[in-house]
Predict the structure of GntR family transcriptional regulator.
Amino acid sequence: MAEIGKFNELTIVDAVDHGLYLDGGELGNILLPQRYVTMDMLVGGTVEVFIYCDSEDRLVATTETPKGQVGEFAYLEVIGVKPNVGAFLDWGLSKDLLLPYREQGNFSIKTGDGLVVAIYLDEHTNRIVASTRLHRHISPEPPEYEANDPVDVLIYGDSPLGYKAIVDKKHRGLLYHSETNDKLEEGDRFTGYVKKVRSGGKIDLRRDPAGYKRVEPLAEQILTQLETAGGRLPFNDKSSPESIRETFDCSKKAFKQAIGALYKQRRITITEQGIETVAANETK
């Protein structure tokens, strides 16, 4: 049976002027409107589509990709607010996603805001809606990760200890301030690394992989960029975390470890102006 709010591979059962009808099992036939139909979609074949309700609450299929499916978390922009009804979010489809007033918690929401929300199916109405009450939608399944496993990280808040995160769109995590020099904001998304899974299921995160596994390839990357730039780059341990992240795609902490390793190997020198290859330094 087709699942509402998710991608499904469905069989095409009929072709009509206004589109194709797809076999939705117990949900009945579901229309894929003509604007999404391509020449290779034939009766008897299959097509991957996303199922949701249109503005008249009828099930409809689309080949568009939303910014999040039911059971996931996403950072979405508020594009309209209707008092006592809720906020409307841009999730990449022609029909906006409703964040009901009752699901806004203590947030004071206005047009233009960005929010991390849980996307879920309202069992009473079969409508796909959003919620800022994230804790209610965390997966009950215990996370199964090993230390240093790469994971998808979505930042949704800050605390005295670190940045609160959604891990792989379903678990809770915390990136300690001591694990990153970057200033992060709600909606920032990146590949992080598991430091530890606690007994309650919460995940301690790293911004970068642990140990020399990360230092060695990063050091080689920095050396390559140095050589491409003629042997000199205006970066050292006084450079801002933002400029380091933009140039080398790593934290300032990882950058310092990498250039420290290169310095110990006598492959670079570190000056007030930046870093230089030994060869470049010798030609001064």
